[in-house]
Specification:
Strand order of the largest sheet: 4-3-2-5-6-9-7
Number of helices: 11
CATH class of the largest domain: Alpha Beta
Structural class: alpha/beta
CATH topology of the largest domain: Rossmann fold
Largest sheet: 7 strands, mixed
Radius of gyration: 20 Å
Number of domains: 2
Low-confidence stretches: 4-11
CATH superfamily of the largest domain: Vaccinia Virus protein VP39
Mean pLDDT: 92
Shape: elongated
Length: 261
């Protein structure tokens, strides 16, 4: 077949560094019976080594040209291709059919990484672990500490749901075409249900979104009409604080205080 040309609209930057690929597969540590889903298999840099360790592999791919290549290259009983957009794909359906937790892996398109992470967080209860290549800046926001400029809505929402570790820093030359940014490989492990202490997770998500809507403003202003000064006082939180100064636990306490008993 003709050489595939990376498509900008799909955010395609294909991994070509053999050592990085080996390090990623070692970190994922797939076992033959695992139900593994690769998002955006591309030209097979991770697909090949994963399939050597697995009975079968599920992949989610939107690019029809790549799907044709995958079908020509792999047996359908080894590689199960789900054609479509990962942003709307029902990952929980695969977990239901497998009877176990999903192991999700991928070199994620940077242009959709944040909404895709939120989509995946919504099905965290059917996931065993997730390993992703992402723009390093996004990973830094994911694992950021309160009080830093990187700490934001993404930090709070993902840290509530997952235990996360940045495993590998990856330079632009590890990809073709080379992106203009550094990348990083991160592991996300869902927290057990007993650690998810928000009484109403929709209320929690709405509160966090409102708090970070205008980062430079005080919480008193961003949460006006949601939580008054007396409410802040009861919780021991300064209404003059800014959103990034609070911890995940603080947001849980605020959200729980708003839930009608």
């Amino acid at each position: 077949m003709n050489k595939h040309i990376a498509r900008k609209r799909f955010g395609q930057n294909f991994l070509i560094d053999a050592q990085v690929i080996a390090d990623i597969v070692a970190a994922v540590a797939p076992q033959c019976g695992d139900c593994v889903v690769e998002i955006g298999p591309g030209l097979g840099a991770l697909t090949d080594p994963l399939l050597k360790r697995l009975d079968r592999l599920h992949v989610v791919e939107i690019d029809r040209d790549i799907i044709v290549r995958l079908r020509q290259r792999y047996s359908p009983d080894k590689l199960i291709i789900h054609e479509g957009d990962a942003l709307v794909f029902d990952f929980s359906a695969l977990a239901d059919s497998s009877g176990g937790g999903l192991h999700i892996v991928g070199n994620l398109p940077y242009n959709i990484s944040t909404p895709l992470l939120f989509h995946l967080a919504a099905c965290a209860d059917c996931v065993a672990d997730m390993h992703f290549m992402l723009q390093k800046e996004v990973v830094e926001r994911m694992v950021a500490e309160p009080g830093t400029s990187d700490f934001g809505r993404l930090s709070v929402m993902l840290q509530y749901r997952f235990i996360m570790d940045c495993l590998i820093d990856v330079p632009p030359e590890s990809f073709a075409p080379a992106p203009k940014v550094d990348s990083a490989f991160v592991r996300l492990i869902p927290r057990p249900p007993e650690e998810l202490s928000a009484r109403d997770e929709a209320q929690f998500a709405a509160l966090v979104s409102a708090a970070f809507a205008q980062r430079r403003k005080m919480l008193r202003n961003n949460l006006k009409g949601i939580l008054g000064d007396s409410g802040f006082e009861e919780l021991g939180i300064a209404p003059t604080a800014r959103a990034e100064e609070l911890s995940v636990a603080d947001y849980i306490r605020m959200a729980n205080a708003l839930v009608v008993q």
